[in-house]
Specification:
Alpha-Beta Plaits; four-stranded antiparallel β-sheet; 195 residues
Length: 195
């Protein structure tokens, strides 16, 4: 959103969401205050964390891909791990949420699998590597009584019966080293809280 600076000069500030991979899971704990400090050190404004699972909302100038590179480097430098982040603006996130194709069902999870770096609404939403992973998930033979997937371009939509997230076909494919390196997942309810 535009804001005035100095003598009426306008900078184009936009609200972005960073979905960080592997924060506060698997023994890696990063406090919300530490995340906020890293984002502020990059010059981002109105920084806030949502939940304790690596969701950061902030305002910045620039494009999502450039912001992503800066965020990953800053997190890697500060916390000593190979940081992965998916960055998108609020309009893109709203579009992803609005396009969710599966109805709410009692006893089922509704997930969005973000292909890290793929941007909604771009002509080349997925790199070859991301495309191969997406097709590995989308082309899998699934039991629709247990789970379903749909192609969302820059995301994969997934719904799965509770209690089967990790042992389902999609869960196992996303749990591979390649899947963990190239994706970050959020449930639909969490995503709505980021807007």
């Amino acid at each position: 959103m535009p804001r005035s600076v100095g003598a009426g000069i306008l900078d184009a500030m936009s609200r972005f969401i960073a979905l960080l991979r592997g924060v506060n899971v698997g023994g890696r704990t990063i406090r919300s205050r530490e995340l906020t400090d890293v984002f502020r050190s990059l010059g981002y404004e109105d920084v806030r964390t949502v939940l304790a699972s690596g969701n950061v909302v902030f305002e910045a100038e620039g494009e999502a891909s450039a912001l992503r590179a800066d965020i990953e480097k800053a997190l890697s430098d500060r916390f000593g791990y190979d940081a992965r982040a998916h960055v998108l603006d609020t309009d893109a996130l709203a579009s992803v949420i609005d396009a969710y194709p599966f109805a709410e069902r009692e006893g089922w999870h509704r997930y969005v699998v973000f292909l890290i770096g793929a941007q909604p609404g771009t002509g080349a939403a997925r790199t070859d590597e991301l495309d191969a992973l997406a097709h590995d998930v989308l082309d899998a033979t699934l039991d629709p009584a247990l789970e379903q997937v749909a192609d969302g371009g820059a995301v994969v939509y997934w719904t799965v019966e509770r209690g089967h997230t990790l042992d389902s076909v999609v869960g196992k494919r996303l749990g591979t080293a390649r899947g963990r390196a190239l994706t970050t997942n959020r449930n639909l309810n969490s995503l709505r809280r980021l807007l």
